[in-house]
Amino acid sequence: MGLYATHDVVIKSLGATYPALQILFFASLLSFPLVSIVLMRDPHPGTLRPVNPGWVALRTVCAVIAGAAGFFAFSTLPLAQVYAILFTTPLLITILSIPLLGERVGRHRWAAVVVGLSGVLIVLRPGGQDLQLGHAAALAGAVASAVAAVIIRRLGRAERPMVLLMWPMLGNFFATGASLSISYQPMALEHLAMTGIIAALGLAGGFLVILAYRAGEAAIVAPMQYSQILWATAYGWFLFGEGVDPATLLGAVVIIASGIYIVWRESRGVSANRPATSARLRPETVTAPKSTILQRLWPPRA
User: Which of 118, 181, 186, 269 is the most buried (most CB within 10 A)?
Assistant: First the structure.
């Protein structure tokens, strides 16, 4: 989670100078050589043609939206605020699991969802602060990431990992590449190298999450994503002069407590599907793909 937070700090640093979509384009472009190494281990023969083209297309759109919205939010808002909003992803996964997975959500988890979403209102404080486009982007990123995560659970192993990994990357490449014709700023060589660092940190974080899930139980590992708020607070203070206002802190505590409660309920076997626990709760971007997909490409040795 420290690597993921550093990944987001580099995005924020570059976002002060360059458009978010331009950063995402070059980070995605420089992800291809690293991802190619991973894809060489794909044990599943076949092509990039999806078995379920409709669901794969929807997941591709959601992954592109999640990446673009996340990059924009990190570029324009304090780190702690962005994380507090993105932490609603497991709450949204719980809601979406009803229509998409046929999941039954009991009153305990519904109560956790309602309490958690009230935490978002505490963070946003409508009327108490000027809401920015970055707040809307963070919310859109959380929704899109939740939809993408539930789609992966719905597809199961029907699709090759390469299909689930490459289609969002290709979709992002063309979508953000088209945006360069609207807004582009020449990048210094060191800044271009920083986009490569974004790609490397995202993949490295994903593989460390895989190792964590192999070594420990999901109920222990999944809540560790919330430690990003600590990294964000430290980075924001030392590097960007950001403080954490009491409302953001309180809202984050409410959202985190609700998310941990849902993961705890699922770990007790209350839900057969366990969508929030099994989806790996890191909000998805093209440079930080779901570790569930990477795990299928990098299975443990016998």
Answer: 118
